Structures are given as structure tokens and as C-alpha cells.
């Protein structure tokens, strides 16, 4: 430390003989040089450094503002998306409910139409059975009538003699003649 103070003291006692010499004390010369460089830097660089720091501060503030705007926009979009999601969920629930209701309604309609179809088929079956019964009864009547007629003709043919046959014909012709006279 003594060398440092000696170097400052020795600056004041330089001979004015015009000789130029080198100070070989490295610590003393470095401190002086650093002091001068720092003084010059502070004096001249103060404005530049201040401008650089102000510009950097402004860019950081602009970035923060932009980030805040983006954040607000993102929050707004998120809220809109959430609102749309809620709306879509409500619509999906309504569709699901309406779908279940529609399925139940279609199920009941199908059951009702099946019952109606079964009733119609039952009616058609009953009508067909009734028709077939009537046709069978009519066929049986016709057979019975034919058999009775054949039996009656057989009986008449075996019982009728020519004379009885002629009298029956004359009686029938007489009845036809009387009916004709009444109608004329």
C-alpha cells in the first residue's frame, strides 16, 4: 500500500527537466489508468448507457404489455370456448333426451302398428274362415240338395206310372194356364 501512496506523492515531485520516464510500479499505474478510463466512461458513456437501458426498459415494458394483451385475448377466447362448450353440451343433452324420447315414441308407434297389423290379420283370418265355412256349408247344401233331388227323382220315377205322369203334367199345365190368365 505504501507504494500506491508513494506513486501519487511522486507525481507531484516530478522534475521539470523535460525528461520522460516510465513508472514501473504496475499497481499504481493500473489504478490511475482504470480511474481515468472509468471517469471518461462515466462522463461520456452515461448518456449512451442511459439510452440503452431506457430502450431496453421500453422493449421489456412493450413486451409485457403485448403479453398482457395476448393473455387477455387468450382468456377471452378461452371463455368463449367454454361458453360454446357449455352450449354444445346442453344441445347434446337435449339431442340425447330428444333422441331417447323419439326412440320411445317410435317404439310405441311400432308396437301400436304391430298390434293393428295383428288385428287386421286376425280379422282377415276370421273373414277367411267365415268365408270358407260359408262356402263349405253351401257346397254341403248343394250336395244334400242334389242328393235329395236325385233321391226324389228316383222315388218319383219308380213310383210314377205313365198315367200318373200324364195327369201330373196336365195338372201343372192347368196351373200354368190359370196363372197366365190371372197375369194377363
UniProtKB/TrEMBL annotation:
Membrane topology, as annotated: Single-pass membrane protein
GO cellular component terms listed in the entry, alphabetical order: chloroplast thylakoid membrane; proton-transporting ATP synthase complex
Gene Ontology molecular function, alphabetical: proton-transporting ATP synthase activity, rotational mechanism
Any Pfam family hit: ATP-synt_B
Top-level taxon in the UniProt lineage: Eukaryota
InterPro entries to which the protein is assigned, alphabetical: ATP_synth_b/b'su_bac/chlpt
Coiled coil segments of this chain: 64-98
The keyword Ubl conjugation is annotated on this UniProt entry: no
Parts of the chain that traverse the membrane: 26-49
Subcellular location: Membrane; Plastid, Chloroplast thylakoid membrane
Keywords attached to this entry: ATP synthesis, CF(0), Chloroplast, Coiled coil, Hydrogen ion transport, Ion transport, Membrane, Plastid, Thylakoid, Transmembrane, Transmembrane helix, Transport
Keyword Coiled coil appears in the UniProt entry: yes
Classification via CDD domains: ATP-synt_Fo_b
Family assignment from sequence similarity: Belongs to the ATPase B chain family.
Job of this protein: F(1)F(0) ATP synthase produces ATP from ADP in the presence of a proton or sodium gradient. F-type ATPases consist of two structural domains, F(1) containing the extramembraneous catalytic core and F(0) containing the membrane proton channel, linked together by a central stalk and a peripheral stalk. During catalysis, ATP synthesis in the catalytic domain of F(1) is coupled via a rotary mechanism of the central stalk subunits to proton translocation.
Binding partners and assembly: F-type ATPases have 2 components, F(1) - the catalytic core - and F(0) - the membrane proton channel. F(1) has five subunits: alpha(3), beta(3), gamma(1), delta(1), epsilon(1). F(0) has four main subunits: a(1), b(1), b'(1) and c(10-14). The alpha and beta chains form an alternating ring which encloses part of the gamma chain. F(1) is attached to F(0) by a central stalk formed by the gamma and epsilon chains, while a peripheral stalk is formed by the delta, b and b' chains.
Extra facts: In plastids the F-type ATPase is also known as CF(1)CF(0).
Name the UniProt record assigns to this protein: ATP synthase subunit b, chloroplastic
Upper taxonomic lineage: Eukaryota, Viridiplantae, Streptophyta, Embryophyta, Tracheophyta
Amino acid at each position: 500500500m505504501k507504494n500506491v501512496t508513494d506513486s501519487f506523492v511522486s507525481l507531484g515531485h516530478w522534475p521539470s527537466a523535460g525528461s520522460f520516464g516510465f513508472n514501473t510500479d504496475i499497481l499504481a499505474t493500473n489504478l490511475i489508468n482504470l480511474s481515468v478510463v472509468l471517469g471518461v466512461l462515466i462522463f461520456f458513456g452515461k448518456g449512451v448507457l442511459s439510452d440503452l437501458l431506457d430502450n431496453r426498459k421500453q422493449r421489456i415494458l412493450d413486451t409485457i404489455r403485448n403479453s398482457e394483451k395476448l393473455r387477455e385475448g387468450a382468456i377471452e377466447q378461452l371463455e368463449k370456448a367454454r361458453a360454446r362448450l357449455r352450449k354444445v353440451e346442453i344441445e347434446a343433452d337435449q339431442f340425447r333426451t330428444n333422441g331417447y324420447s323419439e326412440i320411445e315414441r317410435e317404439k310405441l308407434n311400432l308396437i301400436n302398428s304391430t298390434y293393428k297389423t295383428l288385428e287386421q290379420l286376425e280379422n282377415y283370418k276370421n273373414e277367411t274362415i267365415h268365408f270358407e265355412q260359408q262356402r263349405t256349408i253351401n257346397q254341403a247344401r248343394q250336395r244334400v240338395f242334389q242328393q235329395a233331388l236325385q233321391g226324389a227323382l228316383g222315388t218319383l220315377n219308380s213310383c210314377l206310372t205313365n198315367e200318373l205322369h200324364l195327369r201330373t203334367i196336365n195338372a201343372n199345365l192347368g196351373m200354368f194356364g190359370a196363372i197366365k190368365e190371372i197375369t194377363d
